[in-house]
Structures are given as C-alpha cells and as structure tokens.
Amino acid sequence: MAGYSMNLRVFKKLPMGQQADCLRRYGHFLAERREDSFTLRLYALGDFYAEEWRVLDEDHILFIHLFQHPGGLNEYLHRIRLPEEL
Predict the structure, then answer these.
(1) Which of 67, 70, 36, 35 is nearest to 51 (CA)?
(2) pLDDT per residue over 27-80, tens digit each?
(3) Is 58 helix (H, G, I), strand (E, B) or coil?
(4) What is the pairing mode between strands 48-55 and 61-67?
(5) I need a labelling partner for 72 at 20 to 30 A (CA). Which of 14, 29, 34, 51 fits?
C-alpha cells in the first residue's frame, strides 16, 4: 500500500496476530539470525524495528520484540541487506 505509515505506539496496541500480519504486508525485511534454539527475523516499519522470535524450524511466533534505539541492530549489522535501488 503506497504511503502506508505505522508508528510504535499504534503498533504496540495491536494483538500479536495483527502485528505479524502488518510486518509481513508492510514491513521491510532486513535480516534473519539464530540465537540458541530460536530464529529471529528483523523488520523495519515506520519509526521502529521489530524482531519476530520463533522456535527454530517452527512457524508459530513466540513474541515480537519492538525497539527504536539503533543499538538493537548490533547483532544484525553484518546480515542486513539493503535494497540495491537507493
């Protein structure tokens, strides 16, 4: 959807299922990593970042961690793929 906008305050009020749908539809997938027995997928959306936490090799989302501070990106910096069209 062109011009779609979301901010952290509004996103936090959504149930987790709607949050996940919003990330899939409008979020910008940046990277994926593993931590212990979990798969984490990083998205950028509006004025924040979101990490989807899943048990390794499962589809069910355990929780979605939200943050705005760039320090939260440290574990992803070497994995982030930026669009080629900048």
Answers:
(1) 67
(2) 999 989 999 999 999 999 989 999 999 999 888 999 999 999 888 888 888 776
(3) coil
(4) antiparallel
(5) 14
Q: Which residue in this structure is represented by tokens 């961690």?
A: 65
Q: Whole-model pTM?
A: 0.81
Torsion of CA 24, 26, 32, 34, to 10 degrees: -50
Q: Which of 59, 37, 39, 48 is nearest to 11 (CA)?
A: 48
Strands (E), the chain: 28-35, 38-45, 48-55, 61-67
Asked if 33 and 75 count as a contact pair (C-beta separation under 8 A), the reply is: yes
Q: State which H helix or E strand residue 23 sits in.
A: helix 16-26
Instruction: Look up residue 4 and give its amino acid.
Output: Y
